[in-house]
Amino acid sequence: MRALNDDPLGLDSYLMLLRKQRHSYAQGLLLATTWAKDRGGIIDGPNEDGVTSITVGEEQAHCFLLFSDIDRFYFET
Predict the structure, then answer these.
(1) 3 pLDDT more than 70
(2) Most CB atoms within 10 A, among 1, 28, 53, 59?
(3) Is the pTM of this model over 0.90?
(4) Spatial CA neighbour of 33 closest among 21, 17, 45
């Protein structure tokens, strides 16, 4: 496992990269959770609202499908 400080991208930067690549929600979430787990992150969810929380170090993001008819990966940090 790589140390957090060895990675040039933080959680927010990585999720923004996924968002810019216009991934579907499922694909974006899979990539995000895999990236986070590889860095010792914690994945929580999805909760009853369909939101999955990802925590890596001091950073936390909430990933969700914003519109049911637009299959895109969204997140808030």
Answers:
(1) no
(2) 28
(3) no
(4) 45
3-state per-residue secondary structure call for 55-76: EECCEEEEEECCECCECCCEEE
32's torsion region: left (phi>0), alpha (psi -120 to 50) or beta? alpha
Polymer length of the chain = 77
User: How much of the chain, in percent, has pLDDT values that exceed 70?
Assistant: 90
The structure tokens 């969204």 sit at: 74
What residues contact residue 38 under an 8 Å CB cut-off, 6+ apart? 1, 2
Tokens 């001091």 appear where? 58
Tokens of 68: 């049911």
Task: Write phi, then psi, for 46 (nearest 5 degrees).
Answer: -75, 150
